[in-house]
C-alpha cells in the first residue's frame, strides 16, 4: 500500500541550515549534510533542500553540499530556490537532485514548467506555490511571499500541472509559522483540482496536525515541515508511530 | 566491478554513489570494453521509452547488452531500464524493447481504479511472487521501496519476482536467469534499496 510521506525541509544559506536547529546527538547541527543524513536515518521519506542564497558563490557552495548529501543519503532529494531556467534544473540534477521545485521562476517564465517537463520528465518537476487569501480569494504570491501576483491560485496550479508539473507543494502563507495546523480548506481546493500528488506545507505545530491532515484529506500525499523537526518538537519516528496508530499508512 | 551504462538518459550520480556506499566499485560507461570487463551491468533510465530505446540502438549498446547477457553476465535494469528489458512498450505508440524478458509495458491507468494518482509516486511495499529470489535475498516481504512511474510491465511470464499494490498488483521486481530488474529506485530506497543492490552484486554469472 502506498504510504503518506513525511518530508523535512532544509533552508540552506552559505552552506548552513538557516532555521535554528536544536538536536541532541548531532555534532554539527547546522551542517545540511549531517542533518540530511540524520533525518534519513530517522525515517524521513524524502528531503527538500531550499537554496536561499542570492550570490553565485553561494550557488556553488549549495551544489557542493548537494553532491556531498547525494553521496551519503539514499532517499529522494528535491531542490528548490533560485530555479529560473532549464540550466538551473541541469545544475542541480547533475549533483544528485531527483526533483526540482519551481516557484517564482515559473511565475516569471510561464514556459519553464513545460520546457523542463519535456527535458527531464513530469516526475522531475514540482510546482511550489506560496498562496494567501486576499479578500476571500486564494492568490499566488511571488518573491518568498512578499509580492501578490494577482493570479488565482487553484487555476494557476492547475495550469502548471497541465503543462507537466508532476507534483504540487502547496504552502499556505496564512497558516505558515502559526503552528495551528495545515490549511485544510486551501489544500482541499487544490486536491480537488489536480490529479497529481499534493504535498501540504505550512502550519504544522505538533504531530497531531499531521494526523488531522491525512484523516481529513485522504487525497493529500505528504506533509512537509521545517522548524518543528529542526527544533526536535516533533521527532519523525514518533510522528510515524502516531500516524500508524491512527490507521494512516506510513513507512516504518 | 559494476558497469552502469551511460547512454544519455538521466543522471547517474546517485546510482554510482549508492554502489560506493555498499563498497562496490562502479563505473559509468558507454564503452563496450568496460562492459565486457565488468562482472555486473546496470541499465538505468528515466524519461520516455521511445527516446531511451532509440538512444540504446543508436549507440549500438543494445547489441552489446544482448551479447553480454547471452554470455551469462548478470544485468539489472532500473525503472525505465527495467521496462526496456521487455519485448515492447505501448508508451505513446508501440516500440520494441530488448526482448530479454517476455511481456510488454502498458499504462498503469489501464489497470488501476479511478481516484488513484498517476504517476505512482512514493514508498510502497514489496510482495514476493518468487521463492528464494537471489535479488531479494536480503529483503523481507513488505519492505518499502521508492517508486516513480506511470507505466508498468504487463503480461509477464514467471520473471516477476515481486509486485506492489496500487489499486492493482504492479510488477515491482523481475528475475529470470541472469536478467534482473526493479521498477522502483533501489538507489533512492534507503537501506532497503542498498540491500537489493548488494544482493545483485552477489549474483553469479550463469
Features:
heterodimer, A: 252 residues, alpha/beta, 8-stranded parallel β-barrel, 11 strands, globular, B: 206 residues, Rossmann fold, 8-stranded mixed β-sheet, 4-stranded mixed β-sheet, 6 helices, 32% strand
**Total beta strand runs of chain A:** 11
Number of domains of chain A: 1
The secondary structure category of chain A is alpha/beta
Principal-axes geometry of chain A comes out as: globular
Give the overall pLDDT of chain B as a whole number. 95
Strand content of chain A: 15-25%
Instruction: Identify the quaternary structure here.
Output: heterodimer
Any idea what the radius of gyration of chain A is? 17 Å
Helix content of chain B: 10-25%
CATH architecture of chain A: Alpha-Beta Barrel
Total individual domains of chain B: 1
Radius of gyration of chain B over alpha carbons? 15 Å
